[in-house]
Design a protein that fits this description.
340 residues, alpha/beta, eight-stranded mixed beta sheet, 14 helices, globular
Length: 340
């Protein structure tokens, strides 16, 4: 049992001085997460994955699977290497077919292929992206096997896989259409997308696959909470943490990836990490929320928000105190050693 689990299961002192043992029934159900990422385009995806593993070690979430919206052969092996590093190499990984952005980027090939002599530096079994299942098929399988309204989808890249999921038809996993399956099994879509403080600013994840983003904003049948560009921009991950907090092992895949992405030292924006943190800990007060409304995108890829009673869309906000709290939480989580 990890340290967080031991605390929960341990003796709890009441105000009267008596003690009660927490039971399994007292523990909140771990949040069932599917993580959809364009891993390799920025380093925040890798840090976000490490945060998910830390939250799972603390008993707060269960990472059901990872799907990839970047069409590059080394993304899946990198993710598999990170999952294996955290002791969870069994987590299924799905790969987009004919997707956007095919370039390696700065770290996925280097880390996934790193060797020390004739041994893999970061052992993993998935060596080629083409050996992974197709992303939408995996999404349908994971949703069909989950309880109703139990899954939180965290999407930190392009909306390609989500739009294709909505358009998918019945298959061996479920007789439902994609939209029906989402409506039945998903309770929240937490996505890093859009820009909500500057009505003229395009945001990368939306702009790269604009038709898919527009479809998701228009047709997604559950609540959407967007972490806009301005949120991650305001909260930087400190280089000092990379240089000091990951040295509990000689080689760490996320630390190595961070140092490869840009010349050190640099503090990097936490765009994708914020969507993960909200998805698992929405009630901790890390963020504010806009009023309900509708997110749309125009032909230039600029997102717009219209307040609307009963709307299913909101976006995150932060103040100065929350910025400090979020940064501290993300550093603690991203640098947490594996639960093994």
């Amino acid at each position: 049992m990890n340290a967080a689990g031991a605390l929960v299961a341990g003796w709890l002192m009441t105000t009267s001085g008596s003690s009660l043992r927490a039971t399994d029934a007292d523990r909140p159900e771990p949040v069932r997460i599917i993580f959809d990422t364009d891993m390799g385009n920025d380093i925040d995806d890798a840090l976000a994955l490490s945060v998910l593993h830390a939250l799972q070690s603390r008993g707060e979430c269960q990472l059901l699977g990872v799907t990839i919206s970047k069409d590059n052969a080394y993304c899946a092996p990198f993710i598999d290497a990170v999952n294996e590093f955290y002791g969870r190499g069994e987590i299924p990984i799905g790969m987009v077919h004919d997707g956007k952005e095919k370039e390696d980027g700065q770290f996925v090939r280097q880390v996934s292929q790193a060797h020390d002599g004739d041994r893999q530096r970061y052992p993993h079994d998935l060596l080629r992206g083409e050996d992974a299942p197709e992303a939408v098929s995996l999404l349908r399988q994971l949703l069909a096997s989950s309880p109703e309204k139990s899954v939180v989808l965290v999407v930190v890249g392009f909306s390609t896989n989500l739009a294709r999921l909505l358009e998918s038809g019945p298959d061996s996993y479920s007789p439902l259409s994609g939209r029906e399956l989402v409506a039945e099994r998903v309770r929240l879509l937490s996505m890093m997308a859009g820009m909500f403080t500057d009505p003229r600013q395009k945001e990368y994840n939306v702009h790269i696959d604009l038709p898919s983003a527009a479809k998701v904003f228009a047709d997604w049948p559950t609540e959407i909470v967007a972490s806009g560009f301005e949120i991650g921009l305001a909260i930087k991950y400190p280089a000092a943490s990379i240089e000091q907090d990951f040295n509990y092992v000689e080689h760490h895949p996320v630390q190595e990836a961070y140092t490869l992405y840009l010349r050190m030292p640099y503090d990097r924006e936490t765009w994708d990490l914020t969507s993960v943190l909200y998805a698992v800990r929405p009630e901790r007060g890390y963020f504010g929320l806009s009023q309900p409304g509708q997110i749309t995108t125009d032909a230039q890829g600029v997102t717009h928000f219209e307040p609307k009673a009963g709307g299913r869309h909101r976006y995150l906000t932060v103040d100065a105190e929350q910025i400090s709290r979020v940064r501290e939480a993300l550093v603690q989580l991203a640098s947490q050693p594996p639960d093994r």
